[in-house]
Design a protein that fits this description.
- This protein has 25 helices and 18 strands.
- By secondary structure, the protein is of the alpha/beta class.
- The chain is elongated, with a radius of gyration of 28 Å.
- The strands form 4 sheets. The protein has a 6-stranded parallel sheet with strand order 9-8-10-11-13-12, with helices on both faces. It has a 5-stranded parallel sheet with strand order 1-2-3-7-6, with helices on both faces.
């Protein structure tokens, strides 16, 4: 290569980088909203990564052999949109110009399933780091299960890009610690160390030694002192890819809003447009000679679009390896294909256990354990774990090995006391594909993982949550552990199905729903205390759970009901007892089990009318929690026997009696309404 060619090549590199900077600041300016600074700072890093290292095919964004790229600092979304447009993904310049507008494919923060090439929804800081850890765990697991000597069909990297805010948020601590513990060698992160947050310099609140912190977690750490040094960035990525036993973090010192004469290295470039005048000054400072807005020079577009040719070649090479794999290991290939298609294995439902009266009283967490063990033996993609409560949640798969550094194929995940991190990692596993992940803790501690639950719902992910100890019935641990408002809070999240089974038989149906439900995550709310296994010979079949609510028991007298009693979970037993008490007083009542309000709300109005007929206006709901979510179903003339106060430390039976969660209170409420 001659000196002139080298100079031309470097000039072209700089032109490609500045194209990202200009597109990003122009889109933010047109929207009059957004974050221009980070895209301008990170353009050199992502140019090297996306054109030289990232294995991706813009014309086939879901190619299974691709590397994953997670923009954890989702506020820098225009960086990602610029990269997607320039490298040839199905994202037009019109989409770029519609940044942050109604109905656009370029929302303020990247959204999975909305924009081609976006691997996960990010914005709440730190979540993307956890998602990337989950993706890397999934890759390592699939590689151990499906790769064979000479046929390494799984072996991609997961990259994430994090900001100061990401490394400050607690979830990044939890997930980075777990990643180091597992030795995820194909996980590579970049920390954009620009020293600026919205409030000003990071030194106002942050003085961590991030290098040593990640080294203490067991990561391989490098520093690049100049975020514009392409060769140093390239070398650092090569070094990270060569490190196979530890996750890697590359700390890159950058300048927010690089090139802006007046706003570089200031918080003014973090969450606000630069301003029309500053945009023009920045273009001049960068040597940008075009006056047309949203202009991409032909030379820059041609260089960026080389990713299309490179990506097609990478996928073609992978496909050749895949074809050889299919020929050598056809059964493994069929199983891998099934899992990536998200199809359950044939005959899996035959493994679901049946519970009868002979099984006696049983906590629904215990019933859940039996169902999980039976199903997991036939659904290998179902795996997960608990936040240090495996024995209490009863979510350990019997006979399965722990997932560990030495055995990434283990199916029992020990997350440690990291509920927030667990939720974020589960999302990453689900996003990767090939798995149905579950995570467990006490229901009250779901509050620790509410951000990733909300994001799972936003992304419509197939994640299962197993929340046990679901009411004041857990007893002596007291009000710190007794959820009151939690069920209503979870039910308020769109796309999240909350299922609270009444007995062991409904628990079987709850797991059937959990495996087959699509459109969002599902949370199972389970008891610590024993509840009776209901007499299904006398009462309705538990298959009614599939419709969310169903008539469990009609008046034995055969008379039309004068009142409807509704309940979920452990309080269904109370509703049945109240029905008997009212029958003795000559008041015929219907009992409706309501294990899942979300499923019920999705039923046709005609079905809901058969369960809750208008001509029976007296409705009383019973639940050991806040009544908020029940008002929709009891109507204006109904009532809820619930809790709007905290619990207490005592045996569960005593708490129920003291707080009025009993058949006597329910019957009295019905009489008052009648």
């Amino acid at each position: 290569m001659t000196e002139g060619t080298l100079v031309d090549s470097k000039a072209l590199d700089q032109l490609c980088i500045n194209t990202v900077r200009v597109l990003s600041m122009e889109a933010v300016q047109r929207a009059n909203s957004g974050h221009p600074g980070a895209p301008m700072a990170l353009a050199p890093l992502t140019y090297v990564l996306w054109t030289k290292h990232l294995r991706h095919n813009p014309v086939h964004p879901e190619w299974p052999g691709r590397d994953r790229f997670v923009l954890s600092c989702g506020h820098a979304s225009m960086l990602l949109y610029s990269l997607l447009h320039l490298t040839g993904y199905d994202l037009s310049m019109d989409d770029i110009m519609a940044f942050r507008q109604w109905g656009s494919r370029t929302p303020g923060h990247p959204e999975y399933g909305h924009t081609p090439g976006v691997e996960t929804t990010t914005g709440p800081l730190g979540q993307g780091v956890g998602n990337a850890v989950g993706m890397a765990i999934a890759e390592a697991h699939l590689a151990r299960v499906f790769n064979r000597p000479g046929h390494e069909i799984i072996g991609h990297h997961t990259y994430f890009l994090a900001s100061d805010g990401d490394v400050m948020e607690g979830v990044s601590h939890e997930t980075a610690s777990y990643a180091g513990h597992l030795g995820l060698g194909r996980l590579i992160g970049f920390y954009d160390d620009n020293g600026i947050t919205i409030d000003g310099e990071t030194s106002l609140a942050f003085s961590d030694d991030t290098d040593r912190r990640f080294e203490a977690y067991g990561w391989h750490v490098q520093r690049v002192s100049d975020g514009n040094d392409l060769d140093a960035i390239d070398r650092a990525i090569d070094n990270a890819k060569a490190e196979s036993r530890r996750p890697s973090l590359i700390i890159v010192r950058t300048h927010i809003a690089y090139g802006s004469p007046n706003k570089q290295d200031t918080s003014a470039a973090h969450g606000s447009p630069l301003g029309e005048e500053e945009v023009q000054l920045t273009k001049q400072n960068l040597g940008w000679k075009w006056t047309e807005e949203f202009f991409v020079p032909d030379e820059a577009r041609a260089r960026w679009r080389e990713c299309v040719t490179r990506g097609a070649q990478l996928e073609r090479q992978w496909q050749e390896r895949h074809d050889a794999y299919v020929a050598a290991h056809p059964e493994l290939a069929r199983e891998l294909s099934r899992r990536l298609r998200r199809e359950l294995p044939d005959g899996w439902e035959s493994t679901l256990p049946d519970f009868t009266l002979e099984h006696g009283a049983m906590a629904t967490r215990a019933a859940s354990s039996k169902v999980l063990g039976a199903v997991a033996a036939h659904v290998p993609e179902l795996w997960g774990g608990s936040a240090d409560l495996g024995e209490s949640n009863k979510t350990l798969i019997e006979g399965a090995q722990p997932l560990s550094r030495e055995n990434p194929a283990g199916r029992n995940m020990f997350f440690g006391i990291r509920e927030h991190g667990m939720g974020s990692i589960l999302n990453g596993v689900a996003l990767h594909g090939g798995f149905i992940p579950y995570g467990a803790t006490f229901l009250i501690f779901s509050d620790y993982m509410r951000p990733p639950i909300r994001l799972a719902a936003l992304m419509h992910l197939h994640v299962i949550y197993v929340f046990t100890h679901d009411s004041v019935g857990l007893g002596e641990d007291g009000p710190t552990h007794q959820p009151i408002e939690t069920l209503s809070a979870l039910r308020a999240i769109p796309n999240l199905a909350v299922v609270r089974p009444a007995d062991a038989t409904e628990t079987t149906e709850a797991w059937r729903a959990a495996l087959t439900h699509r459109g969002g995550p599902i949370a199972l709310s389970l008891t610590r205390q024993k509840v009776p296994t209901l007499d299904r010979g006398r009462l309705a079949s538990a298959v009614g759970l599939r419709r969310g609510a169903y008539v469990l028991s009609e008046p034995e007298s055969g008379d039309p009901p004068r009142a409807v009693l509704m309940a979920s979970g452990s309080e269904v037993e109370i509703a049945l007892a109240a029905q008997g008490r009212l029958a003795d007083e000559g008041v015929p009542t219907r009992v409706v089990s309501v294990p899942c309000m979300e499923f019920f709300a999705d039923q046709p109005a005609s079905y809901r009318e058969t369960v809750l007929p208008r001509d029976v206006p007296v409705r009383v709901a019973i639940e050991a929690g806040h009544p908020m979510s029940w008002y929709r179903w009891v109507g204006d003339v109904g009532s809820v026997v619930g809790l709007d106060r905290f619990g207490a430390s005592a045996p569960g039976e005593r708490i129920y009696q003291e707080l009025g969660l009993n058949a006597k209170s329910v019957a009295e409420r019905v009489r008052q309404l009648l």
